[in-house]
Amino acid sequence: MKPQAPRFDAFDADACREIAQDLANHEGPLLPILHALQDRFGYIDQAALPVIADVLNLSRAEVHGVVTFYHDFRSRPPGRHVVKICRAEACQALGAQKLFDEVAAASAENGAVTVEAVYCLGNCALSPAALIDGDLHGRLDTTRTLDLVAGR
Amino acid sequence: MTTKIYVPCDAASLSMGAEAVADAIRESGADVAVTRTGTRGLLWLEPLLEIEISGRRVGFGPVTPDDVPGILTRGEAHPLCLGPVEDIPYLKSQQRLTFQRCGVIDPVSLDDYKAHGGLKGLTHAVAMAPQAIVEEVTESGLRGRGGAGFPTGIKWNTVLKAKAPQKYIVCNADEGDSGTFADRILMEGDPFLLIEGMAIAGRAVGATRGYIYLRSEYPHAFRTLSRAIETARAAGVLGDDVLGSGVAFDMEVRLGAGAYICGEETSLLESLEGRRGQVRFKPPLPAVEGLFNKPTVINNVLSLAAVPTILAEGAAYYRDFGTGRSRGTLPIQLGGNVKRGGLIERAFGLSLREIVEDYGGGTLTGQPVHAVQVGGPLGAYWPTALFDTPLDYEAFAARGGMVGHGGVVVFDDTVDMAQQARFAFEFCAIESCGKCTPCRIGSTRGAETMDRVIAGDGEAVNLVRDLCGVMQDGSLCALGGLTHMPVLSALDNFPDHFPNQFPGAARDAAE
Ligand SMILES: Cc1cc2nc3c(=O)[nH]c(=O)nc-3n(C[C@H](O)[C@H](O)[C@H](O)COP(=O)(O)O)c2cc1C
Ligand code: SF4
Ligand code: FES
To answer: Which of B11, B272, B431 shows the shortest C-beta gap to A136?
Structure first.
């Protein structure tokens, strides 16, 4: 079975409020809410901030501060495919920087593919590694990475 | 007769195509029963298939889907046959305590876990007084595996003594250090062990709630842990009445959001509370005022996962492994440019040479080994001349390095140590929480200054050294405070890579 590439819903303030309200009574609910929003919409829309602030009784600035602190949370919608390439030391030892540069360059014109840097995926014995739409791959080179993305 | 086959399903084996191998077995139509396991940690052999033959699990690997029909018909005569897995020297020479079940059992089967000795530690613990559990852990000599090596029993005792209506157990599963993956392998291969360890910790200090703070880069571990927690709850291992003891303990997994600094314990707590992951001033210690200002045990995955063995077999059993003040076993993670990368759980004291050459078999590229970095992005770079250093906390500290979480990353002779030193600053700049100036600004200046060094400006090397001193002295936490370690070890141990520095600069500083 071929895994389905993630497809994200268009941002919707009502759905956003519902998600926030569902999680609001957890201890420390802000990160779980942000993850749920990003899972659903692919990014954190600016319009989500006042909604979350209202539900959690925080200031908008506080929510903004948290969203911008964490590398995971995007401010713009990603492409249909998200490729997170490891740029950390074990992968550097087998050419990760070149892999990252080449895949990023090859995908630059392609709005359907978002390439992001990550620092270690826990696959350091099988470097270079990347998460492609959430699936981990090892021993990558540029051609194989681009083929894997194209095959999805 | 139905043949038993084992196929791993942890993230590393999946990254090499284990799912397609499992599909090929299913499609072969052979009379087989497939169990999905974690990985044994012999990662260069993944996907490693195991077939039960005459009562022993015989390994084949690395296997592609095309190899499957041949393996199923030819069995041990197939060229990919490795013989009984437990006789493979890489594994046979290990002392597996924490990882004894990894790759052996179905990670989400509680029955499998129990059949392999699981829950023995917790069963003992619920019949013991909390103080006695803490003493057992103290006696074992267990030191935190997250990097700092702080005695676990002493930390627990502080939380036990603290009076509060609510206490917490927090598992640090941020595993941000590059070159490390033991936490991941454990969580994906034997999640009940971590759950059991946390439940014991809860019983020991009087905490009823636990959180696993898991990095978001580990989606597979998230799924495995979530399933295991549900199963444990349904079986009464978690919940209001842990193993019928009348004592409550429950837990959930929380995802980080791609910030390395959130592995630092106080930043992690801020993050769990829903804030920016900025480091807190200490004191108060988390053991006194931790999560939501309540007394909190915060331990690494491997520290907590060592606890069930200690409670099951006794403190003396655990302490008898290891050397000096480094007791028990250390799960070493060997990666980077290495032929046989994987997980090596051994008593402390193995030398770097044994790890890189005997286990690792040299580089994957076949070029000479030139350097290893030990202990993650803040760890030192070691030249081959120092490969006789034994891997224990004190021996490493004495030579200006650290064991950290036990990651060993190998580089061949194409490595450019000036670039590695530059990256250490760059990483610090990307991941700085921004609380202190030396770290926030110094790291960016450091990367710029390294650019000058790389461009041939020898004088800039001295600026780099000064900057390292400022960051070391003026940083609140080890991110800014230890960035000098990779930088200066690169400079001092690999002077040939910095040809333009003032003559003797490296040697003067080393003296
Ligand atoms: C920058 C930084 C990153 C850290 N990352 C981790 C980590 O990913 N995992 C971990 O267990 N400890 C990490 N630590 C260490 C923790 O602060 C803390 O010492 C540890 O969680 C305590 O658990 P232990 O005693 O069981 O080791 C980090 C520390 C620093 C300064
Ligand atoms: S050293 Fe860096 S990461 Fe640590 S507290 Fe200071 S600014 Fe934050
Ligand atoms: S360093 Fe790339 S996966 Fe760990």
So the answer is: B11
